[in-house]
Design brief:
Shape: elongated
Mean pLDDT: 92
Distance between the termini: 19 Å
Number of helices: 6
C-alpha cells in the first residue's frame, strides 16, 4: 500500500511565491533608488538579503509531499517566515533566527489547538 503524502495546496504555494516576487521587486527598486542616491549598502546586501531567501523559498515551494501533515505545516511556516524576512528588512536577522520558533508554533498548533479548528485549517492549506 502506498503511503499518503501531505503537500500544500498549489494555490497556497502560488500565492506565497507571487507575494515573494512582489516583495523582491519592491526591494530591488528600493535598492536601485538607494544606489542612484549614492548609498551602495543595500545593493551590496541584495544577494544575501533577497536572493538567498528567494532561493530558499523556491526550494521549499518545489518540494514534493511529506510523510506527515506536520512536515507540510512546517514547510508552510518556513515559507511564511521567509516572506517576513523579505518584507521587514530591519528585522530580517531576528526573523531568520526565529525558525525554531516557527516550528514550535506548528507543534503547539498540532498538540494544543481544538481538533475542529486544527482540521479546518489543515483542510484549507493542505491538499
Amino acid at each position: 500500500m502506498a503511503e499518503r503524502l501531505y503537500s500544500l495546496r498549489p494555490l497556497v504555494v502560488a500565492g506565497i511565491v507571487a507575494i515573494a516576487a512582489c516583495l523582491a521587486l519592491v526591494r530591488l527598486v528600493l535598492c536601485l533608488v538607494a544606489l542612484a542616491s549614492g548609498q551602495p549598502d543595500e545593493f551590496l546586501a541584495f544577494p544575501l538579503a533577497v536572493i538567498l531567501p528567494l532561493a530558499a523559498l523556491a526550494f521549499l515551494a518545489l518540494q514534493k509531499g511529506t510523510k506527515s501533515a506536520e512536515g507540510a505545516l512546517m514547510r508552510l511556516a518556513a515559507m511564511l517566515l521567509i516572506l517576513l524576512v523579505l518584507a521587514i528588512p530591519p528585522f530580517a536577522l531576528h526573523l531568520a533566527l526565529g525558525f525554531p520558533v516557527a516550528f514550535l508554533v506548528v507543534e503547539l498548533f498540532e498538540t494544543r489547538f481544538p481538533a475542529k479548528l486544527r482540521d479546518a485549517v489543515k483542510r484549507s492549506v493542505m491538499a
